[in-house]
Amino acid sequence: MNSTIFRTENRPVAPVERFRQPADIIEALLQSIQGGESHARPTLELTPESPFLPFLEIGYALRACLEKPACHDYLLQRLRPHLSVMVGTLPASIQPLGMLPKLAPLPGFRKLEQISDDELHHWLIQEGGLIYGEMQRFELENYFDAVRPHLAPGGIMVDLGSGLGKVVMTAALTLSFSRCIGVELMNYRHRLAQERLVRLLTLTRQGLDALPTPLKPDTPLRLPSGQMVNGRHLLELGARLVFIENDMFKVDVRGASLVFVYSTCFGPLMDALSNKLARELPEGALVTTTTYPIQHPGFQLLETHAPGTLSWTSVMIYRRVGPPMTEPASTARYLHHPDADAWEARARAEIGGG
């Protein structure tokens, strides 16, 4: 357990009105990327070409049961065996503000009775991974303070499930990474991250142009983390930031020195994810997770931060140890097993409450 005293709330900040020094530019950039947790979530696209078509089909079948009181018993009966991979009481996607389109399902979509338990199980795993969350600014400041002592200067940072890109861009501004890469499956989140990046680089250019003295590549520059770099850190910011639209399991992370995973909704994926990281990461690389620990012999736990200290949830820091792992370490290490009767009572209360 780490005894460091961390920030517990965002400090008051005044908008940057003039760019007198490079530090003003960095502060303005950090302010510009806040607030993503409140973004609007569009529904998934309902077309025959949608990559989420299998997800939509099962989601519609579940929602049809949710909307019919006569089907509630059957819905709970089907969900009950899969509580270990569910996030929350009822799947968020099938509720009124979920990501299922309000349009009628496409012709040929099956009813829940025609969908197997195996298909439903995998749907619930995927559904959990679509839930979005972000750390606030003070939590990210705490996070980078915690990982910095374990990192050598430079290196590559990768965020698996990067959302709107806040962690990736904060990393590029706060520490001396040579490259920061975000990997995001959801197209709309990737698109918003790219739009944020364009605004970030535009503001960077405006700030550099407004400095009383032009920033030179070799000018010493102190980062918010305390690390010393030079002017290239800002001058080459665009070359150090990359966002990739892809499944995190399809992106190779062999060159990474730090992998960040906001894994609070990834419980059912943690076995596969830890096996992937053990197989690909070089010895010495860092991995951090939230809520769910890594339970794999290829990783040494360096620090654990309890909920309410570094962040609202627990944060774990690991180092990759030992030779490359070619085989999975084991299976089913992360699944939780809530009390089924208590879950059903909560579910009936939620359904009854509308």
From TrEMBL:
Top-level taxonomic group: Bacteria
Keyword Transferase: yes
Domain DOT1: 131-198
InterPro entries: DOT1_dom, FAM173A/B, SAM-dependent_MTases_sf
Organism this protein belongs to: Duganella lactea
Key words, A-Z: Methyltransferase, S-adenosyl-L-methionine, Transferase
Protein name, UniProt field: Histone methylation protein DOT1-like protein
